[in-house]
Amino acid sequence: MPCANPTVSWTNNVYQMAPVIQVSCGTPPTPASPAYANSTQSNPSHNSTSVGCGNASDNLVAEYQPNGASITPPCTQFTSASSYSNSSPNFSFYQMNQDDQPSNYNDNPDYAILTSVLLNGLQNVQQAYGQTLSIKSGYRSPKVNGLVEAANNESHHPNSPHIYGYAADIASNATTWPSIHKAALSVKGSCVEPYSFEKNYKHVHADWRPANWSPGSCLPSWQ
Ligand SMILES: [Zn+2]
User: Fold this and answer.
1) 169 C-alpha vs ligand 1 centroid, how far in Å?
2) CATH of 57-222, one of 1.10.510.10, 3.40.50.720, 3.50.50.60, 3.30.1380.10
């Protein structure tokens, strides 16, 4: 039986279609819908970009561009307080997610970017120093970082390594500052403030930004 189209004829002022005879005409074509479903599933990054992570880290991601940051981290880069675990047990999540301000600005406080290079680096500084370190400030959201800078009468650094989870301010005083500074400098990869920017030697800033980091490399005087 041939696979022909039904015959159409003009009869009594109407088109008459001959009955279609059901015949087997080879393998039916594959429906389009499964292929479409696969292509949607193979593009999860598109979905996560538009939908976000569905938690408070989305609020933090939204702060980067308006505050002048040149990199917007994905929400998947944030650690939550409940899922925080690291190889540096001396540094708790909330110790690493504070801003060294009397009031603490409390900006989505259960989420932060805390890179392993920072946590491991601090562990190495502590080992070099030989005593337990206290962290005054680690991660700061872009909004909080701006508030801290304003409170300290500092110029605005829209790409502070604090907003990317690379930096920490290690508590010190006039007596301990030189030793902590020396210990931090001795750890490979650290970028350490060359002298105390505060008159009272409150902390030593150290960060582990990547080499040749596009927002700003570590200056030679900080290495
Ligand atoms: Zn700092």
Assistant:
1) 5
2) 3.30.1380.10
